[in-house]
Amino acid sequence: MKLNTNLTVAIHTILCISYFEKDYKVTSDFIAGSTGMNPVIIRKILGKLQAAGMVETKAGVGGSTLSKKAEEITLLDVYKAVSEEKEGERSVFNYHANPNPKCPVGSKIHAVLDQPLDNAQKALEEELKKTTIKDLMGKL
Asked: Where do the coiled-coil regions begin and end (predicted)?
């Protein structure tokens, strides 16, 4: 199982913008230097964060700034902005493709796992809702 790094890279990106935006032009190359990620990946994440109204990015070497105050951006907001799932889907716990419907385990895997996985997803989201970018900035 592989969980992607979009959430942590997006949080790192927002923290870089918040920390450096007053003193530097915070470009994707700048952020890539902090995250250790390819600038192309950073640009994709910036695009998602911009679409969610959290950052503003100017093309070229214009750099990025926060569109909202750090205290208005929760980790849940960031999570939702960079998640690959559609509304109502779990993003952390998904099923493997094609369980065998003729198998006594495969035919019931959804029935036995849906509720515990839904509960875990909700617990994760509730926890992410409690922390803002401002909270994290206070720890840097």
From this structure: none
36: alpha, beta or left? (left if phi > 0; alpha if psi -120 to 50): left
pLDDT value of position 91: 64
**Cα–Cα separations (whole angstroms), residue 67 to 41, 45, 97, 134:** 20, 15, 39, 14
CATH number at residue 118: 1.10.10.10
Residue 87: predicted pLDDT = 64
Distance CA 56, CA 112 (A): 44
Tell me the two tokens of residue 102.
Answer: 């003729």
**Hey, how many other C-beta atoms are within 10 angstroms of the C-beta on 39?**
16
Residue owning tokens 């980790």? 75
User: How many domains in the chain?
Assistant: 1
Q: What token pair was written down for 15?
A: 């923290």
Structural domain boundaries, residue 130: 3-138
**pLDDT attached to residue 23:** 94
pTM for this entry = 0.85
